[in-house]
Amino acid sequence: MQVYKVGGAVRDRLLGLPVTDVDRVVVGATTEEMLAQGFRPVGADFPVFLHPKTGEEYALARTERKSGRGYGGFTFYASPEVTLEEDLIRRDLTINAMAEDDQLNLTDPYHGQRDLEARILRHVSPAFAEDPLRVLRVARFAARYAGLGFTVADETMDLMCQLSESGELQALTAERSWKEISRALMEDHPQVFIQVLRDCGALKELMPEVDALFGVPQPETHHPEIDTGLHTLSVLEQSALHKQPLTVRWACLLHDLGKGLTPEEEWPRHIAHEHTGLKLIKAVNERFKAPKDCQELALLVGQYHTHGHRALELKASTLLELLQSFDIYRRPQRFEEFIAACEMDARGRKGLEQRSYPQADYLRGAAKAARAVAVQPLLEQGFKGPELGEALKRERLKALKAYKEAATA
């Protein structure tokens, strides 16, 4: 029995990056031998075990064969006869197909170290094309390591294009797709993930609503970059630079989907795109079964982001409606994330990345003024039920009028 570290732990150590997840492969062992040493089985599809003391994962060396469509369409074979090289060849990229023993002796049959030094993301074998999920994984690694200068090898991009055209991407489950998408959006360069998907034709298959934004012009006075797709990439880039959470990044990706529906004869204006885009945002949310907080914020940002930009011009009554829509009294964090998404949208414009966004503090002040209205005095005046709600609304409107007058004086 021989144990090796494999995959990301080896890759990141060689890159000089912190090693967070350690995967181990066991060569020359049987399931019975692992159980006899106290390892606990966890793998349903193939033999994976937890170490009896550390709880870390150990997987038996295995081979795999395509047996159906999609990510799950594989038959695995684990046996003491399976070699380390046979286990490594089934992996996606050469930089993930390296192993090392406890003495840090490197096993690198597919030249992963060479590709690390060349900053290339290259597939290990033609079997890469058997697993559609690898299109998303490669795009995610491109987003993770873009800052180090990594690019996708031409021959790997060709296979990704073939996979995109094959219809195999449609066999991916919502859960597997969302896991890759959400992880990619939280990388340092999420815009690279979207760009790589577009370059290989996968974006058109997975998110045609986002793909449709490229080539759609916007008024140059507000959008010096003009192209709506490029603007979306820039907004995503800003969301990563400002360390925004996943909810905000997801909203940033989807906020302008309505512009993809604007008839060409109306370009570059996009009247009411906030409302026309809601059905598209809802469709993407449901397709990937995004978490509820991501879904809700994406819809709210899609509908109200132009309100955010025009905050200082809004009437007090419109401002109150905006605050009510976000339920700022019980869910203050959601409104804060809306403000963040609006600011990323404003900064995601060519040459305007550093401009100030006074709307942010103005909206925070408005929310504070509305929350400051006390309920108790109204109760003491005898208001209750629907009448209390109306009285509270009147007092909040009065507070917002006073706030607006003082803030814009």
Overview of the molecule:
With 409 residues, the protein is α+β, with helices and mostly antiparallel strands. Among the domains are: 1-111, Beta Polymerase, domain 2 (2-Layer Sandwich), CATH 3.30.460.10; 119-206, Orthogonal Bundle (Hydrophobic Seed Protein), CATH 1.10.110. Helices cover 50% and strands 9% of the residues. The protein contains 20 helices and eleven strands. The protein has helices at residues 8-15, 31-36, 84-88, 112-118, 133-145, 154-166, 174-185, 190-199, 202-206, 208-211, 228-241, 246-254, 273-276, 278-287, 292-309, 316-325, 332-347, 359-371, 376-380, 385-407; strands at 2-6, 23-27, 40-41, 48-50, 57-60, 62-66, 74-78, 99-100, 106-107, 120-121, 151-152. The strands form three sheets. The protein has a seven-stranded mixed β-sheet. A two-stranded antiparallel sheet has the order 6-7. Strand 8 (99-100) and strand 9 form a beta hairpin. The longest helix has 23 residues, at 385-407. It is elongated. The model has no long low-confidence stretch (mean pLDDT 94).
